[in-house]
């Protein structure tokens, strides 16, 4: 969690000992004005160390830094972090897929069937493997080389980000399609990758959107 200032540490100590205690009373104990302490109280409450109850005062939540971190991580949902999926059709050529991967600046492509449902996944190495010693990448359709349904690992919008991260590790893959159920199969609505997880990790620790 974030580093607290010396004054914030002292304020936490006062609340621990005297809870419930008003901002006014904390200020008195420190010989400071209530206004001076306002930003510190806002931070301690926002970060989760303190609980503020109107007309009662401040309470110590009893949570440690790592408990608060875990709590925050468990609020992260796939929906909030997913990025835009890059897709190709089943009958696209390997050549087209390679071009799409470069232009889309992604490492994983999702393949859609004629009903626009998820039918496969193409990784960088799938395309490299197909390219080695193959003279005619224009003639080779991606459905021949892709990893296909039902062997695709997916995630849903409402899943926890940490669950998606676990799937990436367990299956040793770089990306997951975010899908919705339809009568034709899975509609692809997003993408979760190792980069997504890295950004979430940085945001969690630096408390900044990137
Ligand atoms: P790379 O091949 O570049 O190392 P990955 O580790 O993501 O990239 O892919 C490894 C293999 O797993 C590839 O054959 C790929 O088609 C397949 N794959 C990638 N993502 C998924 C997924 N979400 N579900 C099932 N298979 C996948």
Keywords:
210 residues, alpha+beta, 4-stranded mixed β-sheet, two-stranded antiparallel ribbon, 9 helices, 43% helix, 20% strand, elongated, binds adenosine-5'-diphosphate
Structural overview:
This protein has about 210 residues and is α+β, with helices and mostly antiparallel strands. It has helices at about 5-20, 25-30, 35-45, 65-75, 80, 95-105, 125-130, 160-170, 195-205; strands at about 50-55, 55-60, 85-90, 110, 120-125, 145-150, 175-180, 185-195. Strands 3-4-5-6 form a four-stranded mixed β-sheet. The radius of gyration is 25 Å and the shape is elongated. The chain binds adenosine-5'-diphosphate. Adenosine-5'-diphosphate (ADP) binds near residues 126 and 151.
The largest sheet is: 4 strands, mixed
The spatial strand order of the largest sheet comes to: 3-4-5-6
β-strand amount: 15-25%
Helicity level, as a percent range? Answer: 40-55%
Number-wise, the strands total 8
Oligomer: single chain
Structure classification: alpha+beta
Poorly predicted segments: none
Shape: elongated
Could you say which small molecules are bound to this protein?
Answer: adenosine-5'-diphosphate
Taking all Cα atoms into account, the compactness measure Rg is 25 Å
Distance between the termini: 18 Å
Compressed to H and E, one letter per element, the order equals HHHEEHHEHEEHEHEEH
Give the rounded overall mean pLDDT.
93
* Count of helical regions: 9
Quick summary of this structure?
By secondary structure, the protein is of the alpha+beta class. It has helices at 6-18, 23-30, 34-47, 65-73, 78-81, 94-104, 124-131, 161-171, 194-206, and strands at 50-53, 57-60, 87-89, 108-112, 118-123, 147-148, 175-182, 185-193. Helices cover 43% and strands 20% of the residues.
């Amino acid at each position: 969690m974030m580093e607290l200032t010396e004054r914030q540490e002292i304020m936490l100590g006062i609340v621990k000992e005297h809870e419930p205690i008003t901002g006014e009373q904390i200020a008195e104990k420190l010989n400071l004005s209530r206004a001076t302490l306002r930003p510190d109280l806002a931070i301690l409450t926002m970060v989760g160390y303190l609980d503020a109850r109107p007309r009662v005062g401040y309470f110590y939540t009893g949570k440690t830094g790592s408990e608060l971190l875990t709590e925050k991580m468990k609020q992260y949902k796939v929906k909030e972090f997913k990025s835009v999926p890059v897709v190709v059709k089943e009958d696209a050529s390997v050549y087209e897929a390679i071009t799409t991967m470069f232009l889309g600046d992604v490492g994983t492509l999702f393949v859609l069937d004629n009903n626009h449902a998820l039918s496969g996944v193409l990784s960088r190495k799938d395309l490299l493997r197909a390219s080695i010693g193959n003279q005619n990448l224009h003639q080779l359709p991606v459905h021949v080389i892709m990893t296909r349904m039902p062997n695709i690992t997916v995630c849903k919008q409402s899943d926890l980000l940490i669950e998606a991260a676990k799937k990436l590790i367990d299956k040793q893959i770089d990306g997951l399609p975010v899908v919705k159920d339809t009568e034709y199969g899975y509609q692809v609505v997003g993408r979760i990758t190792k980069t997504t997880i890295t950004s979430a990790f940085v945001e969690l620790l630096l408390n900044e959107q990137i």
